[in-house]
Amino acid sequence: MQGQSQQQAYDRGITIFSPDGRLYQVEYAREAVKRGTASIGIRAADGVVLAVDKRIRSPLMERSSVEKLHKADDHIGIASAGHVADARQLIDFARRNAQVNQLRFGEPIGVETLTKDVTDHIQQYTQIGGARPFGVALIIGGIDADGEPRLFETDPSGTPYEWKALAVGADRGEVRDYLEEHYDEGIDLDDAVGLALSALGSVNDDALRPEAVGLATVGLDDREFSRLADDEVEDYLVDLDLLADEEAAEGDDETGDETTEE
Questions:
Q1: Where is the Proteasome alpha-type subunits domain positioned along the sequence (predicted)?
Q2: pLDDT value at position 246?
Q3: In terms of pTM, does the model score above 0.70?
Q4: In what order do the strands lie in the sheet with 39-44?
């Protein structure tokens, strides 16, 4: 009985390490991220691309209300996977920090600096009793003041990772394998958009709908976060032969995801 109660304590308490050094609640938070639909980030030579799978649960839902892409500052965008409410809290935190940095120092915040501010905040929730970790992973991408594109991932443990290309959420392993096979460090922004869509298509039977995909870029020319409209996404899908037909679209709407993760 004593061993069983200790196991339950390791399992339920965020401030208690298991004998093998694990925090179970952090691992459960990572599982929540895996339940969210896929998000992809790609660093190009002249910018960064963020792409998300915006799965719609019902044809009655307003598509604009499904938000997985967010503008943190003029030069930084964020994509999320996991619990939507957790993502919204972290993105609000990131936006506040970006504005504070601008007001305090008179310059845009660095991508790495903002990422570490967010992960420091996340880490606090891995050591406070009565709180749970954030069940979300963020992809933070943008252009630094020196003109260098940067791409980072935040983990529920509060650890930042820098990537050339990455995926979070459902099918992460398959998407990452696709990116490892096709990514090239000299890729330009336009080709990076095509690579992101192709990677999403690789786990969606090579059939995507423009309204079910979110795309945003931060280019080196203007250093501005910019969302691609549905017609622009459709043009890319047609060129890549990834555009889903109407029958497939109707079927997807009827069998949409019923979870609270995105």
A1: 10-32
A2: 67
A3: yes
A4: 165-168, 39-44, 47-53, 213-219, 225-227
